[in-house]
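PROTEIN DATA CARD
Card holder: Lipoprotein
Chain length: 152
Origin: Litoribrevibacter albus
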Amino acid sequence: MKSLLLLPLTVVLIACKTSATANNQQPSEQESFLVEAIQNTPYSAVVKHIRVDVLPSDQPDFTEQHIYYAQVLETFRGEELSTINYSMFVEEGEDTIIDQNPVIVTLCKDDEGFYWPGTGAQFEGTTALISLAKKHSVRKTESNQTHFSHCN
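Structure generated from the sequence above:
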Protein backbone atom coordinates (compact mmCIF):
# COMPACT_ATOMS: atom_id res chain seq x y z
CA MET A 1 0.00 0.00 0.00
CA LYS A 2 2.82 2.38 0.92
CA SER A 3 4.51 1.89 -2.46
CA LEU A 4 1.24 2.63 -4.25
CA LEU A 5 1.05 5.98 -2.47
CA LEU A 6 4.69 6.79 -3.23
CA LEU A 7 4.31 6.16 -6.96
CA PRO A 8 2.06 9.21 -7.65
CA LEU A 9 4.29 11.39 -5.47
CA THR A 10 7.38 10.27 -7.39
CA VAL A 11 5.67 10.98 -10.72
CA VAL A 12 4.69 14.48 -9.54
CA LEU A 13 8.22 15.23 -8.34
CA ILE A 14 9.78 14.07 -11.63
CA ALA A 15 7.26 16.15 -13.61
CA CYS A 16 8.06 19.23 -11.52
CA LYS A 17 11.79 18.76 -11.99
CA THR A 18 11.35 18.28 -15.75
CA SER A 19 9.20 21.41 -15.94
CA ALA A 20 11.75 23.46 -14.00
CA THR A 21 14.56 22.22 -16.24
CA ALA A 22 12.58 23.11 -19.36
CA ASN A 23 11.88 26.58 -17.94
CA ASN A 24 15.58 27.16 -17.32
CA GLN A 25 16.40 26.27 -20.91
CA GLN A 26 13.69 28.37 -22.56
CA PRO A 27 13.46 32.03 -21.57
CA SER A 28 9.96 33.24 -20.87
CA GLU A 29 8.31 35.81 -23.12
CA GLN A 30 8.85 38.44 -20.44
CA GLU A 31 12.57 37.61 -20.26
CA SER A 32 12.88 37.85 -24.04
CA PHE A 33 11.06 41.19 -24.07
CA LEU A 34 13.32 42.51 -21.29
CA VAL A 35 16.51 41.61 -23.14
CA GLU A 36 15.16 43.16 -26.34
CA ALA A 37 14.11 46.34 -24.49
CA ILE A 38 17.53 46.75 -22.87
CA GLN A 39 19.29 46.30 -26.19
CA ASN A 40 16.99 48.74 -28.01
CA THR A 41 16.83 51.66 -25.57
CA PRO A 42 19.66 53.85 -24.27
CA TYR A 43 18.70 53.65 -20.58
CA SER A 44 17.59 50.85 -18.26
CA ALA A 45 17.55 50.60 -14.49
CA VAL A 46 15.77 49.28 -11.43
CA VAL A 47 13.80 52.16 -9.96
CA LYS A 48 11.34 52.88 -7.19
CA HIS A 49 8.74 55.42 -8.26
CA ILE A 50 8.29 58.37 -5.94
CA ARG A 51 5.51 60.39 -7.57
CA VAL A 52 3.82 61.33 -10.81
CA ASP A 53 2.71 64.75 -12.01
CA VAL A 54 -0.12 65.17 -14.53
CA LEU A 55 0.18 68.11 -16.94
CA PRO A 56 -1.69 69.22 -20.05
CA SER A 57 -0.03 67.89 -23.20
CA ASP A 58 1.45 69.98 -25.99
CA GLN A 59 1.31 66.94 -28.33
CA PRO A 60 -1.62 66.92 -30.81
CA ASP A 61 -2.56 63.23 -30.36
CA PHE A 62 -2.45 63.22 -26.55
CA THR A 63 -4.31 65.20 -23.90
CA GLU A 64 -2.04 64.67 -20.88
CA GLN A 65 1.63 64.38 -20.08
CA HIS A 66 2.58 62.28 -17.07
CA ILE A 67 5.97 63.01 -15.50
CA TYR A 68 7.22 60.11 -13.37
CA TYR A 69 9.88 60.64 -10.71
CA ALA A 70 11.90 57.72 -9.37
CA GLN A 71 14.84 56.80 -7.18
CA VAL A 72 17.37 54.72 -9.14
CA LEU A 73 18.37 51.58 -7.28
CA GLU A 74 20.64 50.07 -9.96
CA THR A 75 21.59 51.13 -13.48
CA PHE A 76 22.01 48.56 -16.26
CA ARG A 77 22.50 50.85 -19.23
CA GLY A 78 23.19 54.55 -19.53
CA GLU A 79 24.43 57.18 -17.16
CA GLU A 80 24.39 56.22 -13.50
CA LEU A 81 22.02 58.59 -11.71
CA SER A 82 20.51 58.61 -8.23
CA THR A 83 17.11 59.89 -9.40
CA ILE A 84 15.40 60.22 -12.76
CA ASN A 85 12.23 61.62 -14.22
CA TYR A 86 10.64 60.68 -17.51
CA SER A 87 7.59 61.72 -19.47
CA MET A 88 4.75 59.75 -20.95
CA PHE A 89 2.07 61.19 -23.23
CA VAL A 90 -1.39 59.67 -22.71
CA GLU A 91 -5.10 60.15 -23.27
CA GLU A 92 -6.95 62.13 -20.63
CA GLY A 93 -7.84 60.13 -17.54
CA GLU A 94 -5.31 57.30 -17.91
CA ASP A 95 -4.24 55.84 -14.57
CA THR A 96 -1.37 57.44 -12.70
CA ILE A 97 -1.11 54.69 -10.10
CA ILE A 98 2.53 54.02 -9.28
CA ASP A 99 3.77 50.71 -8.01
CA GLN A 100 5.67 51.12 -4.74
CA ASN A 101 7.73 48.01 -5.51
CA PRO A 102 10.99 48.29 -7.46
CA VAL A 103 10.55 47.84 -11.21
CA ILE A 104 12.87 47.69 -14.19
CA VAL A 105 12.31 50.48 -16.71
CA THR A 106 13.80 50.91 -20.17
CA LEU A 107 13.68 54.49 -21.43
CA CYS A 108 14.50 56.60 -24.46
CA LYS A 109 16.20 59.97 -24.33
CA ASP A 110 16.07 63.13 -26.42
CA ASP A 111 17.04 66.78 -25.90
CA GLU A 112 14.20 67.22 -23.39
CA GLY A 113 15.18 64.21 -21.25
CA PHE A 114 13.99 60.65 -20.72
CA TYR A 115 10.70 59.45 -22.15
CA TRP A 116 8.61 56.30 -22.12
CA PRO A 117 9.02 54.27 -25.33
CA GLY A 118 5.64 52.52 -24.97
CA THR A 119 4.20 49.20 -23.91
CA GLY A 120 6.80 46.69 -22.80
CA ALA A 121 9.12 49.21 -21.16
CA GLN A 122 8.46 48.30 -17.52
CA PHE A 123 9.09 44.92 -15.90
CA GLU A 124 8.70 43.48 -12.41
CA GLY A 125 11.76 43.91 -10.23
CA THR A 126 12.09 40.21 -9.48
CA THR A 127 15.45 38.69 -8.59
CA ALA A 128 15.41 36.60 -11.79
CA LEU A 129 14.67 39.56 -14.08
CA ILE A 130 17.22 41.80 -12.34
CA SER A 131 19.84 39.08 -12.78
CA LEU A 132 18.94 38.77 -16.45
CA ALA A 133 19.13 42.55 -16.90
CA LYS A 134 22.60 42.58 -15.33
CA LYS A 135 23.71 39.85 -17.71
CA HIS A 136 22.52 41.89 -20.72
CA SER A 137 23.52 45.32 -19.43
CA VAL A 138 25.43 47.87 -21.50
CA ARG A 139 28.65 46.28 -20.37
CA LYS A 140 27.63 43.20 -22.36
CA THR A 141 26.22 45.02 -25.40
CA GLU A 142 27.62 47.40 -27.98
CA SER A 143 28.48 50.58 -26.04
CA ASN A 144 28.78 52.93 -29.04
CA GLN A 145 25.31 52.11 -30.33
CA THR A 146 23.54 55.11 -31.86
CA HIS A 147 20.27 53.61 -33.16
CA PHE A 148 17.65 52.40 -30.67
CA SER A 149 14.68 50.81 -32.43
CA HIS A 150 12.29 51.23 -29.47
CA CYS A 151 12.85 54.99 -29.60
CA ASN A 152 11.66 55.77 -33.14
